[in-house]
Amino acid sequence: MKIAIVGYGNLGRGVETALLQQPDMEAVGVFTRRDPASLTSQIPAYALKDLPQHEVDVAILCGGSATDLIEQSPDIVRHCNIVDSFDTHARIPEHFAHVDAAAKESDHAALISTGWDPGLFSLMRILGLAVLPNGSVDTFWGKGVSQGHSDAIRRIPGVVKAVQYTIPREEAVARVEQGQGEGLTARDKHLRECFVVAGSEADQEAIRHTIVTMPNYFADYDTEVHFIDEATFDANHTAMPHGGQVIRHGHTSEGTPQVMKFSLDLASNPEFTASVNVACARALYRAYQEGRRGCMTIFDLPLAYLLPISAEELRANWL
Ligand code: NDP
C-alpha cells in the first residue's frame, strides 16, 4: 500500500522510520507546509499542496493536535484515506463529526485519535470495562516528557530551555491496584518535575513561581523545579521517553477482586506512536478495501487487520 506522511516533526520522522521497515508498504513521500528542500528526510519531500497529484492509499497525518489536525484531517480526507493521532480528548467527538462528514462525501475512510493514548490505552480501558464491568479504571502517565507542559514553561520570559517530566506516584498506583483508588486527586496521582535553563540566575525565583502557580498545568500538582546549565540539559534532557499504565480493578463476585494491567515503557514517544499509526494505516486500508467508509476509531477495526499476516496464520500461531 502507498503511504504518505503529512507533516515532518517528531511524529513524522518516527513514521518515516517505521514505514521503511514494513514489507507491504511503499513510502510515497513526506508532504510539508514548509519548503520541502529544507527537510532532511530519507524519502522524497513535497509541498503539501501537491498531495492530490500523488497516488496515495493512506496519508498518515503527523501535525499537532492544537491547531493542525482540526483543519488538516477533514481537508486531506477529501483526497485520500487518512490516519491521525488527534489527542485533545475533550474535542474528539467534534473532530470525529467533521472528519466523518468529509470522508463520507468523498467516499474515503479515516481513523482518528490513534497512537498510545488515545490509542492502545483506549483499547485497554474498554477491554477492562467489558470484562470487569463492576470496577473502576485509572490511567497513570510517565515517567515521561509532556510536550504540552514543556512548551508552557518555554513560553515564560527568561526561560532558555525546559523539559517537564510527569511522574506517577507509587503510593497512588499501589492504592489503585488494591481497589482503593477512589477519591485520588490529580495531585495524589502524579508529580511534575521540571528542568529549566534560565537566561540569568536573577530570574530563577520568578520563573519558579510562575511555573508552580500556572493554572491548568501545574497549580493542581506538586511541582519540583530544578535549574541546570545548558550543557547538562543537552546531555541529559533531550530524549523523549514516555509510558504509563492502565489499571482496571474490579470484582467478578463479592470478595473476588481481579486486576487487569497494561503498561508501556517507551524510550521514544514519537517513534512508538508512529509504529502504532503505521499498523493502524494497514488496518484502515484493509477496512477501506472491504467497503468501509467514513470516520472510525481504533474501537472499530478488527485487530487482525493490523498485521500483514493471514487469518489462518494468526489462528495457528498467535491464539
Ligand atoms: P511537532 O511539533 O514536532 O510537529 C507538528 C508539526 O509541526 C509537523 O507536522 C510539522 O508540519 C511542523 N513542524 C515540525 N517541526 C517544525 C519546525 N522546526 N519548524 C516549523 N514547523 C515544524 O509535533 P509532534 O510530531 O511531536 O507531535 C504531533 C502530534 O502527535 C501532537 O500534537 C500530539 O497531538 C500527537 N501525539 C499523539 C500521541 C498519541 O498517543 N495519540 C502521542 C504523541 C503525540 P510541517 O512539516 O507541515 O511544517
UniProtKB/TrEMBL annotation:
Q: What EC number(s) does this enzyme carry?
A: 1.4.1.16
User: One MF term from GO for this chain?
Assistant: diaminopimelate dehydrogenase activity
Keywords carried by this UniProt record: Amino-acid biosynthesis, Diaminopimelate biosynthesis, Lysine biosynthesis, NADP, Oxidoreductase
Is NADP given among the entry's keywords?
A: yes
> One Pfam family of this protein, by short name?
DAPDH_C
* Domain Meso-diaminopimelate D-dehydrogenase C-terminal span(s) in chain numbering: 115-267
What InterPro entries has UniProt attached to this entry? Diaminopimelate_DH_Ddh, Meso-DAP_DH_C, NAD(P)-bd_dom_sf
| Pathway listed | Amino-acid biosynthesis; L-lysine biosynthesis via DAP pathway; DL-2,6-diaminopimelate from (S)-tetrahydrodipicolinate: step 1/1
Subunit architecture: Homodimer.
The protein here is known as Meso-diaminopimelate D-dehydrogenase
Organism of provenance: Peptococcus simiae
